[in-house]
């Protein structure tokens, strides 16, 4: 939160709507390459050897929370986890 908070206060005069704020934030902290890599981790998720289902679910949820703007439908997320 430190870097994001600093970035926000430096740019608060130019970011005066939620749409501008979210767009600028994603461009700064989630460039296209990073977003695509995070979506790939979600889409290609695999349970690790020796990992329990609850542990795998926790890991999967962490991937999702690391990319809150993933844009994937719930059914697709469930399918990725199931497979």
Structural class comes to mainly alpha
Mean pLDDT over the residues: 87
Query: Which assembly state applies to the chains in this document?
Result: single chain
Q: What is the rounded Rg?
A: 16 Å
Order of helices and strands: HHHHH
Shape: elongated
Largest sheet: none
Can you walk through the features of this model?
- With 83 residues, this protein is an all-alpha fold.
- Helices cover 69% and strands 0% of the residues.
- It is elongated and about 50 Å long.
- The termini are far apart.
Which SSEs are present, and which pair or pack?
Elements: H1 2-11, H2 18-29, H3 32-43, H4 53-66, H5 74-82
Helix pairs in contact: 3-4
Key attributes of the depicted protein:
5 helices, 69% helix, mainly alpha, 83 residues, single chain
How would you sum up this structure in a few lines?
This protein has 83 residues and is mainly alpha-helical. The protein has helices spanning 2-11, 18-29, 32-43, 53-66, 74-82.
């Amino acid at each position: 939160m430190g870097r994001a908070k600093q970035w926000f206060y430096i740019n608060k005069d130019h970011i005066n709507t939620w749409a501008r704020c979210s767009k600028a934030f994603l461009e700064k902290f989630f460039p296209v390459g990073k977003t695509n890599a995070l979506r790939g981790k979600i889409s290609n998720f695999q349970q690790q050897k020796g990992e329990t289902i609850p542990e795998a679910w926790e890991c999967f949820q962490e991937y999702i929370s690391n990319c809150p703007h993933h844009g994937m439908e719930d059914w697709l997320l469930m399918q990725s986890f199931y497979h």
